[in-house]
Amino acid sequence: MQRVCFVLRVKPDRLEEYRERHRNVWPEMQQALRETGWHNYSLFLSDDGLLVGYLETEDFEAAKAGMAQREVNRRWQAEMAPFFENLESGAADTDMRPLDEVFHLD
């Protein structure tokens, strides 16, 4: 199982709305994540906009590719893109920057 941690940055003036949107993630989006191999997935948001994501998956590239094929993901990404700073591709799911794991205590 791969452990993946990534970072993005949410615009400071959109923090509360971002939090609210994630209290009510669409059920079909949650199902698509499960079906494409996203497990133990969490997002953490600091007051300065730093967003840290963590998930476990068999194959991160395959999990991202699976979501890229889902219509619900395209809708979600389009709605969420305005919340983020400096998206090069225009979508958070393709701009997330994975971090190198340097230590793990099992």
TrEMBL record:
Q: A biological process (GO) annotation for this entry?
A: rhamnose catabolic process
**From what superkingdom does this record's organism come?**
Bacteria
Gene3D superfamilies membership: 3.30.70.100
Recorded GO terms, molecular function?
Answer: racemase and epimerase activity, acting on carbohydrates and derivatives
Its name, as the record gives it, is L-rhamnose mutarotase
Which species is this record about? Thermasporomyces composti
